[in-house]
Write a structure and sequence with these properties.
There is one protein chain. This protein is mostly helical. It has nine helices and no strands. The protein has two domains: about 1-60, no CATH class; about 65-160, no CATH class.
């Protein structure tokens, strides 16, 4: 019988490599690299291919965990999805960490949302929304729209007394 031990290590190695690639892409963006630069470094044919790769990596590395929301209803699932969407958007923004004082904190807070229990999810999103409200700096239109969706999702998911 064939020894499959080495093959069994591949999924874990792939996950580590995906996480490293995502971290390097995000670091490059924060340091000013364009999508064209990243596409060339990865051997991809276009900036769109590089952006799509980052989205795929983000979904693989930080999957939204629907089982965390079992029995909590669609509003909580929508809140988690809106937080993940905003996190993907700001992760692709090379100037995000320089946009306002607490921008890096917002990025880190939203990074925890996909795996957070529902009770912590509310607190994480509420903190991110409060930090975004105090940003003062104008955000790009797609990011503003994602923030508005997150704010609406938080209002819809917040239990009423």
């Amino acid at each position: 019988m064939a020894d499959l031990t080495a093959l069994r290590t591949i999924p874990a190695e792939r996950a580590r490599l995906d996480a490293r690639e995502l971290a390097l892409i995000d670091q490059a963006r924060r340091e000013g690299a364009t999508w064209v630069d990243i596409a060339a470094a990865l051997g991809l044919g276009s900036r769109q291919a590089a952006e799509q790769r980052r989205l795929r990596l983000t979904a693989a590395v930080h999957p939204v965990a629907p089982e965390l929301d079992a029995g909590l209803g669609a509003p909580v699932t929508a809140l988690r999805a809106a937080a993940a969407d905003l996190h993907r958007r700001i992760g692709a923004d090379r100037r995000w960490d320089r946009r306002f004082t607490r921008a890096a904190l917002v990025r880190q807070t939203l990074a925890a949302a996909p795996e957070a229990p529902a009770s912590a999810l509310y607190a994480l999103v509420a903190a991110a929304v409060a930090d975004l409200a105090g940003a003062g700096a104008p955000l790009p239109a797609p990011t503003r729209a994602a923030v508005a969706r997150l704010t609406s999702a938080l209002e819809a998911a917040t239990p009423q007394p």
